[in-house]
Model the fold of this input.
Amino acid sequence: MTQLLISVATIQEAQLALENGADIIDLKDPSAGALGALPLQQIQAIVSHVGAKRPLSATIGDLPMQPNLLLERVNLLSKTQIDFIKIGFFQTDDYQSTLDALLPATRSGLKLIAVLFAEYQYPKTLIAAIKHAGFSGLMIDTAQKNGATYMDYYSKEQYKKFSELVSKQGLSFGVAGSLQLKHVAVTKKVKPTYMGFRGGVCVENQRGLSLDVDKIRAIRKAL
Done:
């Protein structure tokens, strides 16, 4: 069964997600970009509040693909005892140097999630390289939060093929990026590991506004 990931920015939002069916609680700052990072102190507070009740993920932020910088941020975030660390794969000519730099982190047991953006074109070998680098999973998201979803960039056949490639590598597979209730039925057909929501579970579908409990419950039911 596809799991429900809800992105939150505060302890109060984390508690609402807990109470209304979230399987995974994701920590991010919606005002700071596609994968905006919360301050480490705030992440630690939410981790302490949620404890072992749900798996928790957090992002290192919208950062350029600079290997040493990404490794430094991963190591800092790991000190909060977060379960999964999300890394955005922004555009570059060289993803392999970043993957090589992060190999010690995955070998130490850190669970890293690669976030690929639907707007970008990636090398055909990248999914296999992500697996080889020891990542735990891969997500499709959107870099521009303008209401477009992966469906504006992928045909149904492309989405299915992408999912199959991820599955063949034994990686978990998440789908996010401006998703709403109306997108659930078609998205879950290829059985992603989880679907992620922020704007689609907020008041007026605006990711910077407060969570809407009724929307979370409706999506929970649809999954």
Q: What stands out?
A: Strands lie at 3-8, 24-27, 56-59, 84-88, 112-117, 137-141, 172-175, 194-197.
